[in-house]
Amino acid sequence: MSVTLTYIKHGDTVVDATCGTGQDTVVLARAVGSEGSVYAFDIQKNAHLLTEARLRSHGFNNVHPVMQSFVSMSEHIPEKSAAAVVFNLGYLPGGDHSITTTAAATLEGLGCALRTIRPGGIVTVVMCDGHEEGAEEKKAVLEWAESLAPKRFHVAYVSLLNQKNHPPEILWITKK
Ligand SMILES: C[S@@+](CC[C@H](N)C(=O)[O-])C[C@H]1O[C@@H](n2cnc3c(N)ncnc32)[C@H](O)[C@@H]1O
């Protein structure tokens, strides 16, 4: 998240595409401050309840919860307006492992995210291939990212080479 935060300033609009338990949502809410906005997407009611509770305990009221797939991002946020969109792929920690992000939806959501960020903005994708859907999804996301037009986007990929048990991998895409 620390790289992502360097692209965000107070007053910005940002997106947590998969709010889950709300850990990233809180970090984003703090980064944009009371003048800014966070759109927090998740398809699960449980995730929104956890996120709302966490936000309440921190006293943030600058978050708009959206209980829809991140593929609907463009219906809620104008194009080229967000400083950052954050995806943390997989299933809800402590939740139903069968409800997970999928390669098809994630590729569509990433396309939406690239349209939603402003020039100079960033899309962050945290991926984990420790489960079947996650491995397929990571492969699809990396293939997609490699094909992005080099004149329009920079893509960086971080893999924790000496860590065991499928550590998370991170993709950063910035728009020129
Ligand atoms: C790994 S968790 C996110 C963890 C979160 N960043 C946190 O701080 O707890 C992935 C989340 O993505 C959600 N999800 C799955 N498919 C989705 C979709 N199409 N749109 C939005 N959220 C989705 C799941 O319900 C799950 O809560």
Describe this structure in words.
This protein is of the alpha/beta class and 176 residues long. It has a single domain (2-175), classed as Vaccinia Virus protein VP39 (Rossmann fold), CATH 3.40.50.150. Helix content is 35%, strand content 25%. It has six helices and seven strands. Strands 3-2-1-4-5-7-6 form a seven-stranded mixed beta sheet, sandwiched between helices. The two termini are 20 Å apart. 38% of the residues are buried. The model has no long low-confidence stretch (mean pLDDT 96). The protein binds S-adenosylmethionine.
Features:
176 residues, alpha/beta, Rossmann fold, seven-stranded mixed β-sheet, 6 helices, 25% strand, globular, binds S-adenosylmethionine
> What is the CATH fold-level name?
Rossmann fold
Low-confidence stretches: none
Give the N-terminus to C-terminus distance in angstroms. 20 Å
Rg, alpha carbons:
15 Å
The distinct bound ligands, ions and cofactors come out as: S-adenosylmethionine
CATH arch. level architecture: 3-Layer(aba) Sandwich
What's the story with the biggest beta sheet?
7 strands, mixed
Number of strands: 7
Q: What is the number of domains?
A: 1
Shape: globular
Class by SSE composition: alpha/beta
Give the proportion of residues in helices. 25-40%
Task: Output mean pLDDT.
Answer: 96
Just give the CATH class. Alpha Beta
Helix count equals 6
CATH homologous superfamily placement? Vaccinia Virus protein VP39
What pattern of helices and strands is seen along the backbone?
HEHEHEHEHEHEE
Strand content bin: 25-35%
